[in-house]
Every structure is written in structure tokens, then in C-alpha cells.
Recover the amino acids of this structure.
């Protein structure tokens, strides 16, 4: 057939014209793996273009018996290799075993003890000592975006101003999704520790300088890129721990300081700060959170501080923390305040001396300072005394802080606006009042969080549309 052909193309056509029964072909030991080898209409086995090329390139001496046996043996070996590779692809356990065997070979060949010593020499400077211990603002949004910004990017304004543009919050993907807003804002120095408490009752600890840095208007980075949070975890509260020394955790996490917890249902718990000394990257248990409850705030205490628990309805319970016995990290706490129906805890503050007042702010931009002497110290577990007359004009109480006249306050709104004001510009008035305007809010805008600014060396005081202080409005 090939010898009778005048050209190569003619021989190719004649060979391609042959077809065979697939069952007979498989009996000869030929493995049919490709549809290209089968005639689509008749289901007969035909030569592929590649097979035809090999036939045409075959030399006559290869047709003798010994050469045929050699080709047959090569073909059989190739079939066995193909079947073995197909078996590997079909069985995961074989893939894993091959990887393990290859790694064992590499280990036996190259595994030698490390020859380079990366330990710190005596007298060597710690890495943290090379980082300037400057003041920063830490901002965390409701959807978990975090950043630190140098305090020098914010300027001081008069009370009632419009504010500076703060963190760019992310818009909702659809109308049913709530817009992002800033949920936590506080000041800390670069060497300090940050304790991140989650809704599941765990705590993660990082240094401030490890927080991603961003400008005043940047969105920040997802906190899940910083902490090894579990899928169901969200940040509920953050506590700043002032560092003592460069790397001395024993001097920072001591026995005579305590972490005081407050939950939405009104429960409180006190745990020694030393209980958090041996923290891990994957977090540790901080408090047992019961179903339907959530963590509101945490404070660092001396063990003998007076505690003020403020509710959204404008009530406050003041008690001494010595009535709260220290508990281990996995405990859930005891009753601190018994909220009225529909009310819940929104803030935890520590009472100070004569120069310290309780600052209360409402969601519609009103606030005031009230001397702690006006709040009677009672046992824990009561319903509380009036701290702000909540009306439609004020809106619910969103936060409360212990401040002095020398402090400054940072306000953050639901749209990401920020304003920094002096506490001395906020009038000090009695408990049964509505307060004065802290900042001007746009239509539908509300205050979401307040924070006391840690003292720094900023003296850049600029006016930005401040208004005269209105008179306090007494409760009707």
C-alpha cells in the first residue's frame, strides 16, 4: 500500500482510510484513551495523524523480528507508566505519599543544624528601642478596618465646629447593607500594648507600632490581616496598656493592676493584668460571654477605683470595685447594674478626684460635664441615678468618659467626620440636664464614638467655624 503510492500525501490518505474494531484493537494491547482515535460516526478505531506520521517514518529494518519486539517492549513500558500516572491523579493518598517521600529524600540530603546564631547578644539594642515613642491615634471601623495616624495630623478646634475629614468609611454594597462607621478611637504611644477583646471573649495583644500606619483620610487595613481572628470573631473593645521598658512583660503585666470588664446586660468582671502576660498570637480566653450578651468596654484599674456604669437611657450606677472580687479569665462576672426594660449598658468610666468630671455625650450631638460628687456611691446591682435627661432632642446616650478641664475630646460620627475639642469648652452642669451642643451634625448624621485624647505636645490651635456656647437646657 505504501510502496504503491506515488507521494507521501497519497500514502497518508490510504493509511487513514483503514479502520478497525475497537474491541479487537484492545485485545492487541493497544490502550484507547483519546476520542481522536475513534471514528465519531461509526465508532471504529482509526489511526491518528501522529500515528500515521510514525508509520510513514518507519524504516524497513525496524520490521524485522528483533526490532518489532523492541518496539513492543517500549510500548508496553509506556502503557504501564501511563496507567501509573492515571492512578496517581485519581488517588489523593498516592499524591501525598509521593510528596512525603520526596521531602524525606530532601531532608536526608540537606538537613543540617543551623550554623547561624540569630540570638541577641548581651547589651544589644532591642528593635523596639529604635522606634520613636510618638503619640498616635488608633482608629477601628465597624467593619474591622484599622490604622494608626500620627497625632500631628489633627488640629485643635473650637466646640461646635464642623470637624476635619477623618477615616474614609466604606459605602454599603446595596441599600440593605449598613454603611461602615468608626467604632473605636483612642490615642496611644508607639511602644504601648493594645489588647483587642472580641465578641467571643478572647483577647489578642499587639504593640502599637505593629499597627499599619495610614493618613487621616485613609480607610486603613482589615484587622484580620493583623490578628489571627477566627471567622466568627469581631472586635468588641480595645484596651491600651502603657509599656514599661522595652521588652519587660513582667514589669508591664503586673499583679496589682486589673482589667475591668463591662457587658451590655450590665455584668462586670475583674481580672488581674498579670493573667494576660503569657499571650499568644492566636489569642487567649479573656471572659466568658453568655449567649445574647456582648462586651461593651474594658478599663485598667488599681483594684480600689470607683466605677460608673452608664446606660443608653441616661442612668448611672456608681460603686467601688472592691465589691467585685478578682476572677479568672474564663469566668463571666457578676451583676453591676440592673438596666430598666429596653435599656442597656453603653459605657464604663472610672471616677476621679475633685478636678475630674463625668462627660456624657448623646447621639444627636449634645453633651455635658458633671462632677462625680453628684453621683452617690452605692452597691453594685442597682438601677442607677439620672445622669442625662434623654429626650427626642438629645437621642440616646452613646458614651461617657472621665475627663478634666485640661483634657481634649475626639468625636467621631456615623459618616466618618471627626472633631477635636477642649473639654473646658463643654459646660459643667448638673445631672438632670440635657447638655450643650458639642458639634454640628448633618441631616441623618449621629455621633458614634467619643474618646479622650492622650496628652501630647500639640499646640496647633486653629479655629474652624466654632460657635458661641449656648446655655444649658434644663430638663423639663
Amino acid at each position: 500500500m505504501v510502496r504503491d503510492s506515488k507521494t507521501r500525501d497519497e500514502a497518508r490518505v490510504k493509511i487513514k482510510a483503514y479502520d478497525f474494531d475497537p474491541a479487537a484493537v484492545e485485545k492487541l494491547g493497544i490502550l484507547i484513551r483519546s476520542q481522536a482515535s475513534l471514528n465519531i460516526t461509526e465508532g471504529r478505531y482509526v489511526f491518528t495523524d501522529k500515528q500515521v506520521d510514525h508509520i510513514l517514518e518507519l524504516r524497513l529494518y525496524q520490521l524485522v523480528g528483533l526490532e518489532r519486539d523492541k518496539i513492543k517492549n517500549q510500548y508496553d513500558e509506556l502503557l504501564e507508566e501511563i496507567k501509573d500516572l492515571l492512578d496517581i491523579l485519581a488517588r489523593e493518598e498516592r499524591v501525598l505519599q509521593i510528596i512525603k517521600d520526596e521531602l524525606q529524600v530532601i531532608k536526608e540530603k540537606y538537613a543540617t543544624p543551623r550554623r547561624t546564631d540569630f540570638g541577641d547578644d548581651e547589651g544589644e539594642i532591642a528593635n523596639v528601642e529604635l522606634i520613636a515613642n510618638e503619640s498616635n491615634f488608633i482608629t477601628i471601623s465597624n467593619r474591622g478596618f484599622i490604622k494608626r495616624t500620627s497625632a500631628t495630623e489633627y488640629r485643635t478646634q473650637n466646640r461646635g465646629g464642623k470637624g476635619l475629614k477623618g477615616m474614609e468609611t466604606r459605602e454599603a454594597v446595596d441599600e440593605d447593607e449598613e454603611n461602615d462607621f468608626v467604632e473605636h478611637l483612642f490615642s496611644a504611644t508607639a511602644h504601648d500594648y493594645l489588647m483587642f477583646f472580641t465578641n467571643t471573649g478572647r483577647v489578642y495583644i499587639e504593640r502599637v507600632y505593629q499597627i499599619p500606619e495610614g493618613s487621616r483620610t485613609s480607610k486603613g487595613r482589615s484587622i484580620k490581616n493583623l490578628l489571627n481572628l477566627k471567622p466568627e470573631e469581631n472586635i468588641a473593645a480595645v484596651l491600651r496598656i502603657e509599656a514599661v521598658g522595652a521588652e519587660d512583660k513582667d514589669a508591664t503585666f503586673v499583679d496589682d493592676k486589673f482589667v475591668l470588664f463591662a457587658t451590655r446586660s450590665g455584668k462586670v468582671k475583674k481580672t488581674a493584668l498579670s493573667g494576660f502576660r503569657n499571650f499568644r498570637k492566636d489569642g487567649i480566653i479573656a471572659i466568658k460571654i453568655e449567649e445574647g450578651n456582648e462586651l461593651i468596654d474594658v478599663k485598667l484599674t488599681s483594684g480600689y477605683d470607683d466605677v460608673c456604669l452608664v446606660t443608653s437611657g441616661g442612668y448611672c450606677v456608681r460603686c467601688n470595685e472592691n465589691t467585685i472580687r478578682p476572677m479568672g479569665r474564663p469566668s463571666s462576672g457578676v451583676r453591676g447594674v440592673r438596666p430598666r426594660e429596653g435599656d442597656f449598658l453603653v459605657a464604663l468610666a472610672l471616677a476621679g478626684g475633685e478636678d475630674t468630671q463625668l462627660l456624657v455625650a448623646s447621639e444627636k450631638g449634645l453633651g455635658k460635664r458633671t462632677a462625680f460628687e453628684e453621683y452617690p456611691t452605692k452597691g453594685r446591682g442597682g438601677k442607677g441615678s439620672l445622669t442625662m435627661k434623654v429626650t427626642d432632642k438629645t437621642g440616646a446616650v452613646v458614651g461617657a468618659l472621665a475627663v478634666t478641664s485640661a483634657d481634649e475630646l475626639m468625636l467621631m460620627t456615623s459618616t466618618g467626620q471627626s472633631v477635636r475639642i477642649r473639654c473646658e469648652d463643654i459646660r459643667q452642669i448638673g445631672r438632670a440636664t440635657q447638655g450643650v451642643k458639642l458639634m454640628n451634625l448633618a441631616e441623618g448624621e449621629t455621633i458614634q464614638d467619643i474618646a479622650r485624647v492622650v496628652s501630647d505636645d500639640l499646640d496647633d490651635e486653629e479655629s474652624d467655624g466654632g460657635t458661641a456656647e449656648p446655655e444649658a437646657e434644663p430638663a423639663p
User: Anything to note?
Assistant: The chain has a mean pLDDT of 80. Residues 8-94 form a domain with the Topoisomerase; domain 3 fold (CATH 1.10.268.10).
